[in-house]
Amino acid sequence: MKPLSELAAALGMSYTFAESWTQEYGNAVLSRWPIKHLKVQKIFDDTDFRNVLKAMIEVPHVGEVNFQCTHLDHLDKNWRMKQVGAIIRSSDSHHILAGGLNSLNETDYSQERWTDIIKYYEEIGKPTPKVEAMRFLKSEQCTDAKDFAGECESVVVIAKGQSLQGTCKYGMRVDYILASLDYPYKFVPGSYSVLSSKGTSDHHIVKRKHQTVVKITGTAPPSKGIWTTNTLSKVE
């Protein structure tokens, strides 16, 4: 499927895609290593046109890495909470969850900035922004990749009263990379960053690295395996 297939070819990666309500809209995972197993499921139930794409990736010298990509509802808070609850209940192994969660994390903003965000949403006719989905994920002790932030790309502006770069055209963070409580690998300190999509999308690219120490038998010293994950989502 173009342009996804062209992007994967240019990067030398394999990819998988799960369409949502149209053939060219959905969730995708690209990997430089083999994608061994796939599962696509409606997020909440069969009436939900959105899905979560689950991929098991075989990383050399590391083993299996479980990766989940999704895009939650952007209008209905109650439906979004059902979706995020269903994702947690259906996850039976350690994993990374990445994508457009369409929920704000209240600790990213000062009270003044939060008031400005609510006012702005009212002016453009969008529903009042909610934090319940991210609050729930934090209660599940998910690790937020932004806690390992590095240098900011200057073209992606940080609004006054906001502690980090926004990921969408409205200036807020709605795209996340989260590790489950039992995730066995570590984020690399200083590796989280937001890169400008340079006008090709209404969202920016969120990037971070994993790190794990791998034991090597014999006389060779231990080595570190490091890999990178990017997520680029499109808001509706």
UniProtKB/TrEMBL annotation:
State the Gene3D superfamilies in the record.
Answer: Endonuclease/exonuclease/phosphatase
Q: Name one GO biological process term.
A: GPI anchor biosynthetic process
Question: What residue ranges are annotated as transmembrane?
Answer: none
The family database entries (InterPro entries) matched by this protein are listed as:
Endo/exonu/phosph_ase_sf (IPR036691), GPI-anchor_lipid_remodeler (IPR051916)
Q: SUPFAM superfamilies, from UniProt? A: DNase I-like (SSF56219)
Q: Which domain of life is it from?
A: Eukaryota
GO CC, sorted alphabetically, is: endoplasmic reticulum; membrane
Q: What is this protein called?
A: Endonuclease/exonuclease/phosphatase domain-containing protein
The organism named in the record is Eucalyptus grandis (Flooded gum)
